[in-house]
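User: Reviewer 2 asked us to show a designed sequence for the structure in our supplementary figure. I'm pasting the structure tokens here. Could you produce the per-position amino acids so we can include them in the response letter?
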């Protein structure tokens, strides 16, 4: 009985590790958790979708954003990022500005051992996303 339980625990642990993506999924949403060294503000919702047509888009917290992108292996680059022009609270607008500015400097992506998708800008810490399971 103990051997079966131990085997089941090991199998579940390995199954959890195997679920990390090895490619970015197109036409699938990702939810941002961190911009560099700072987590997102409570109740803000920042998303990213990489369309199969080479256009990325999502919600930047206040405004909707969009940009062309190129993906080649682990190399990822975004073109000029545009957005709608709603105004929100100053702190939310500051966070949105940091996110959009960081997107334009992304050079590569990878996946952490926890399964987070990370976009690495030219300088600084990664943008960290989780696949949107909703």
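Assistant: Here is a per-position design you can include in the supplement:
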């Amino acid at each position: 009985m103990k051997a079966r339980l131990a085997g089941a625990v090991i199998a579940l642990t390995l199954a959890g590790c195997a679920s990390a993506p090895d490619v970015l999924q197109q036409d699938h949403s990702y939810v941002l958790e961190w911009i560099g060294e700072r987590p997102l503000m409570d109740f803000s919702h920042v998303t990213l979708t990489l369309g199969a047509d080479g256009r990325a888009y999502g919600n930047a917290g206040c405004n909707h954003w969009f940009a062309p992108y190129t993906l080649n292996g682990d190399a990822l680059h975004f073109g000029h990022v545009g957005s709608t022009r709603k105004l929100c609270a100053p702190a939310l607008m500051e966070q949105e500005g940091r996110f959009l500015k960081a997107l334009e400097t992304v050079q590569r992506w990878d996946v952490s051992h926890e399964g987070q998708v990370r976009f690495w800008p030219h300088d600084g810490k990664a943008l960290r996303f989780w696949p949107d399971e909703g």
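For the response letter, you might also mention the following. The helical segments are 2-18, 90-103. Residues 2-20 have pLDDT under 50 and may be disordered.
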